[in-house]
Amino acid sequence: MLPHGYSKPSLAELKKRLTPIQFQVTQNDATEPPFRNEFFDNHEPGIYVDVATGEPLFSSLDKFESGTGWPSFTKAIEEERVVSKSDISMGTMRTEVRSAVGDSHLGHVFDDGPAPTGLRYCINSAALRFIPAKRLQAEGYGAYAPPFAGNASARAVPVSTANACAKPPPGERPGCEATLDTALLGGGPAAQSALRAVPGVLEVETGTVDNAQALRIVFDPKQIGYGDLLKKWAPIEAASGRRDTVVYYTSEAQRRVAEDWKARGTTAGTLVVHAGDVNAFSQSRN
After folding, report:
1. For a pLDDT cut of 70, what percent of the chain falls above it?
2. Is 122 a catalytic residue?
3. How far, rounded to the nearest angstrom, does the alpha carbon of residue 282 sit from its chain's CA centroid?
4. φ, ψ dihedrals at 275, nearest 5°
5. Which of 35, 36, 79, 161 has its CA 20 to 30 A from that of 182?
6. Catalytic residue among 57, 100, 122, 202
């Protein structure tokens, strides 16, 4: 029997309510980039609900550090809240998990987790909304509040990094792999505003890399390739008047594209190509 009290809004309504990444993950089965997402390192007590429907899905009491860069849980908050199905999209058999009512894509479940279940629910932050334990009553989730009473909310978070996502066997692909990509490019608010309107660009943040103004861009390679993203970005950055336009490549594939651009003199200014790391990006707090 499906849980009662929740319903899925229309796709039109979800497009209005959800961010582009949330919509791509929950409705189009995308996987967000690891480590730069909202809840992978959240240790606050509370529950996680479906961002589309509000249906309770997971509890912080079952959350653990998996080393994968995605929120990981040993079990669902209630078994009937999460349903599973076979997934061969990566060319290997995996078990996808979806919310029971909203049918939102959440992530996958693997059998390399810690005790007591031996399971690892590898979940996209973009599929979740977090409700702190102190807000459960106020937001209508009072039935889930008792386990957080007393010292239960302060229990230690178990650690497990021996899984196929954090460290796959030699020659094997990881069990979790992002379908969305991240670019680090020089630029500020003007480029941020312009790039947010580009189809396939899901998120643009301003910040710094090595104290230099930079952008962190999450994009869908199925909608816009890295080279095409550079074509959109370069004229905007060149118009800023800065002497150099900077690419911080985060993969070998990105490096090859950027170096090809540099060799062909594609940009109006001087193109500087640096090795980058998404974790070196510091987001602006203004």
Report:
1. 85
2. yes
3. 17
4. -70, 135
5. 161
6. 122
